[in-house]
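Exercise 7. Given the encoded structure of a 295-residue chain, write a plausible sequence.
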């Protein structure tokens, strides 16, 4: 896959569709490689008349890692956050937004339709706040405008297993267990699909330390609601009604913060994007892009 220089880093990316079509930048979540956006999902979005771009955020996948920065204790950081203390991070959410803006520069794109999922939705929000001229529309999927605490069991599941990465079975089993924990009851849990995804992630670039640093950046970021109140582009918020990781309150707060944002609830969906739910995700994104392109 191609790479681009951005913000002093190297970012791995991939494109789908016709370069003449309206561009959509897909931003994936915490510790998640760009390949967590399913290839078929990207192709379906491209076939609807869009140039689709997905990429690895810093510290994950095949983009630049920050292993020169020590990894702190995520549990201690989370407790500090819950207690109202300040969490220090080796980089900020605004830096991740700057990375995305730099990728657009490398691709020769003045502006794009930004779509972010989970932690990627938080980055997307930061792009809309810090780089408003680069954003034609904003879609925030299963995300939140500030860190809203979840159940302790769910929070602890974010920690990678403390095992030898060569122990594929244990690492993969942990990934499947987390996917099952995040799934809602409205869609059949695809255990075999979760296993394939977990194994593919492991073989491509398993890097849990980067996910910890990304989590610190999320905990250190300030409330984005004041900034989102200034967003003027068409916006869409998509959220599952049974999301245990980014609780539905996060979706509601995001929609409430952005003037005129459309809020789409997907009944029974957890912190996941099951294939059976894709039409409920793709249809409103395509409608939003079409509407924004006429402005």
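Solution.
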């Amino acid at each position: 896959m191609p790479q681009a220089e951005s913000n002093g880093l190297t970012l791995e990316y991939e494109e789908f569709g016709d370069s003449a079509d309206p561009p959509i930048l897909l931003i994936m979540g915490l510790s998640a490689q760009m390949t967590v956006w399913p290839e078929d999902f990207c192709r379906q979005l491209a076939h609807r008349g869009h140039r689709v771009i997905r990429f690895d955020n810093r510290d994950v996948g095949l983009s630049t890692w920050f292993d020169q920065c020590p990894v702190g204790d995520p549990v201690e950081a989370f407790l500090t956050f819950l207690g109202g203390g300040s969490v220090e991070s080796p980089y900020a959410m605004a830096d991740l937004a700057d990375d995305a803006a730099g990728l657009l520069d490398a691709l020769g794109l003045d502006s794009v339709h930004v779509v972010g999922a989970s932690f990627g939705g938080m980055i997307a929000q930061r792009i809309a706040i810090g780089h408003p001229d680069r954003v034609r529309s904003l879609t925030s999927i299963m995300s939140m405008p500030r860190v809203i605490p979840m159940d302790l069991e769910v929070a602890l599941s974010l920690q990678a297993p403390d095992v030898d990465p060569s122990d594929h079975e244990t690492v993969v089993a942990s990934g499947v267990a987390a996917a099952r924990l995040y799934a809602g009851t409205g869609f059949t849990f695809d255990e075999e699909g979760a296993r394939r995804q977990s194994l593919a992630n492991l073989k491509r670039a398993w890097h849990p330390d980067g996910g910890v640093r990304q989590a610190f950046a999320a905990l250190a970021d300030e409330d984005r609601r004041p900034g989102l109140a200034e967003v003027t582009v068409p916006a869409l918020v998509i959220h599952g009604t049974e999301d245990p990781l980014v609780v539905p309150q996060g979706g509601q707060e995001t929609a409430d913060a952005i003037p005129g944002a459309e809020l789409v609830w997907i009944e029974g969906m957890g912190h996941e994007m099951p294939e059976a739910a894709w039409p409920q995700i793709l249809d409103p994104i395509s409608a939003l892009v079409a509407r924004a392109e006429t402005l």
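Remark. The beta strands are 3-6, 9-16, 23-27, 51-55, 112-117, 135-141, 235-240, 262-266. Students should compare their own answers with the one above.
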